[in-house]
Amino acid sequence: MERWQSGRLRTPRKRVSPKGDRGFESHPLRRIMPNLNVIYLRIAGSNLKIKFTPPYKKTDDYYFYNKLRFTIADSFRGFIVDGKPKKIDYEIELIKRNIVTFPTRLEDKTIHSLNLYVQEGNKITSYQHISFSHIVMLLKQIITELSITKRFFLLHASASRLQDQALVFTGRSNAGKSTTMSLLRKTHPPLADDSVIIKKEKGKYYLYQTPFVEKNEEIERTNKRYGIKKLFFLRKAKDFRIEKIENKDFLFSRLTNLMLTNKKSFKENWSTLNEFVQEFDEFYYLFFAKEPEGLSRLMLSVSS
């Protein structure tokens, strides 16, 4: 079982630098989002609302408020919903509040802490002085909670697109998840290089992309779903071949260790994963070398 706490939070490089209302007027998302004070996201079929309470203009607070909302809009643009959804599954409200520290004396040190958020049911209230990395952390918590009620799980994996389907690649650290995705990028567009959501809908299993920052920032992330064609466990080798895996106990054990979860959601995620292993039959070992043409030919042959 892998935990979110071990992941690295990185801010994407390209950012809009808004200056007051002028940044809002020129923002590329203004066409579909006339009011950036409320942003609606759809992630794995769940609807999230992010609401901002504007501070007074012409202050430092207003600059940071603008910068944060534009950063969120830019980073999650592929998940933005045009118009208000009928049902909101979770809400984040970012309010203006003076920064207050809480000192704690520990031996010869004084530790100063900040309140990060308040949670009430399916709503989190946080503050506009937090960073984008904190927003990603909150989204990880929310998506992990939604995985309980919406019956999906998150997997440490990369993925590539095959028309409207997904090829999923998983394995331990340094198994080659990002490498495999990169080698296939010319013939199979990348979908993920670190984490994916797997969800059953109407008897079929689908892959959804996560909104989390990927190592490869060129990946286009959206709220689309992709039917899972095959799931591969990676093995570095000198040749190219695949071997079908039939042992369900082995599969369940390995995938449990690769699941992204926490103590609160582990039991439900474990049950959802077990159902996936029992019902889905396209599990394989993928033996591969670092040669794009050979790997692409193999993927095209097994995907036909």
Structural description of this entry:
The structure is a single chain. The protein is built from seven helices and 17 strands. With 304 residues, the protein is of the alpha/beta class. A five-stranded mixed β-barrel has the order 9-10-14-13-12. A five-stranded mixed beta sheet has the order 2-3-4-8-7, covered by helices on one side. A hairpin with a 2-residue loop joins β7 and β8. About 6% of the residues have low confidence.
Largest sheet: 5 strands, mixed, barrel
What would you report as the Rg, rounded to the nearest angstrom?
Answer: 21 Å
Distance between the termini: 33 Å
The order of strands across the largest sheet is 9-10-14-13-12
Task: Give the number of DSSP strands.
Answer: 17
H/E element sequence: EHEEHEEEEEHEEHEEEEEHEHEH
How would you state the average pLDDT, rounded?
A: 86
The share of residues in helices is 25-40%
Low-confidence parts: 5-22
Structural class: alpha/beta
Give the CA-based shape: elongated
Task: Please tally the helical runs, counting DSSP H or I stretches of 4 or more residues.
Answer: 7
